[in-house]
Specification:
39% helix; alpha/beta; eight-stranded mixed β-sheet; Aspartate Aminotransferase, domain 2; 12 helices; four-stranded antiparallel β-sheet
């Protein structure tokens, strides 16, 4: 009856089942997975945000496939403030980064064609690709004290049906940025690049070897994705964009004209939401840096746990003793200690044992949760 695109296993995993049971029992859960900034205790400029949404111009329907000139100019201003000149004509508004991916898969790939995506990474690509009848092929990120692209594995994955390479810069959850030397090798392949840069503003310090955005890359075809969800901490506003160039822009406008998904209120509000979002972004940056510093200090020398190197983003990855599976670690932490974390296999880590923590978590909950986690791991690892 239904399309084969939707043949997914919808059964809840064991962690979700246990979490639901613990919450129904009234357990005081310390949630170290919180990724929604609107629920993380930040101070939002509510009146200014609501005023921006209530623009009288939103009562008029003026469909523009790529987005209004004012909104696109505001996005160009965002890049200009970061040292990059991007013509508004290269910018197309979308309802979200997820929609940007869907449009790009439509643009670049026929059914059955392949798109390369990083591993580890956020568990979304599988569903987006399936809905477009595109086949995903993973290429690994290697870790030897810092993260890097495994180019030998990537190049072995290339076939005549490879139509794009996805980069998440910085990666989620590893927090690793693309380096200039890696970009040069990617450009030499001549395959279209899709660069997801939603976390690019959240770097932990500068690095001249790092590539913060690909908007200046002229060849091969390159598409840069971002939006209000992370930049301004406003995931509920549902407005993203992509930066393209050349003949791709015209074709993307045809797709955009088919859907016309970006609402007038969001387009009209965008310039002011980018401005008001700066204060929220600063709060998020301070929170993530502070929680990361606490985590590193809490582990200290000689700890059985290790924080993997990260350069930016909202998440930290812990390597823990493989005395049990990641799944069992997360279940035990939730059941015994009321601490919720995510297992590495949620993000396709290719070995165990890793736990992923959100640095967005309010500080008191983060510190208490980390303390309980480390106590549990130390107890498990102590000689009997």
């Amino acid at each position: 009856m239904f399309s084969s695109r939707l043949q997914w296993d919808l059964r809840p995993n064991r962690l979700s089942v246990l979490l639901d049971a613990r919450r129904r029992a009234g357990a005081p859960i310390l949630d170290l997975t919180e990724s929604n900034p609107t629920r993380a205790g930040f101070l939002y400029p509510g009146p200014q945000i609501l005023e921006a949404i209530c623009d009288p111009r939103s009562l008029m329907y003026e469909p523009l496939p790529a987005g209004s000139a004012e909104a696109r100019a505001a996005v160009a201003g965002y890049y200009r403030a970061r040292g990059h000149e991007v013509a508004p004509e290269r910018i197309l508004l979308t309802a979200s980064t997820s929609e940007s991916y869907a449009w790009l898969f439509k643009l670049l790939a026929n059914p059955g064609d392949e798109v390369l995506v990083p591993r580890p990474s956020y568990p979304l690509f599988e569903f987006l690709a399936a809905l477009e009848s595109v086949r995903l092929v993973q290429y690994p990120l290697a870790y030897d004290g810092s993260w890097s692209m495994d180019f030998e594995a990537l190049e072995r994955s290339l076939t005549p049906r490879t139509h794009a390479i996805v980069l998440v810069n910085p990666n989620n959850p590893t927090g690793s940025f693309l380096k200039r030397s890696e970009l040069a090798r990617l450009v030499a392949l001549g395959i279209p690049l899709i660069s997801d840069e939603v976390f690019a503003d959240y770097a932990f310090g500068p690095d001249p070897a790092r590539v913060s955005t690909l908007v200046d890359v002229e060849a091969p075809l390159t598409f840069c994705l971002s939006g209000l969800s992370k930049i301004s901490g406003l995931p509920q506003m549902k407005l993203g964009w992509m930066v393209a160039r050349g003949p791709a822009v015209e074709r993307l406008e045809l797709i955009a004209d088919t859907y016309l998904s970006v609402s007038a209120p969001m387009q009209n509000a965008l310039p002011r939401l980018l401005q008001t979002g700066a204060a929220v972004q600063q709060q998020i940056a301070r929170r993530t840096a502070s929680n990361l510093e606490f985590l590193r200090q809490a582990l200290g020398a000689g700890s059985v746990c290790q924080v993997l190197d990260l350069e930016g983003g909202w998440y930290a990855t812990l390597r823990i003793p493989r005395t049990r599976s990641e799944e069992q670690w997360t279940l035990d932490l939730l059941e015994r200690d009321n601490v919720l974390v995510q297992p590495g296999f949620f993000y396709d880590f290719d070995s165990e044992a890793y736990l992923v923590l959100s640095l967005l978590t309010p500080p008191e909950a983060f510190r208490e949760g980390v303390a309980r986690l480390l106590t549990s791991v130390s107890r498990e690892s102590a000689p009997s």
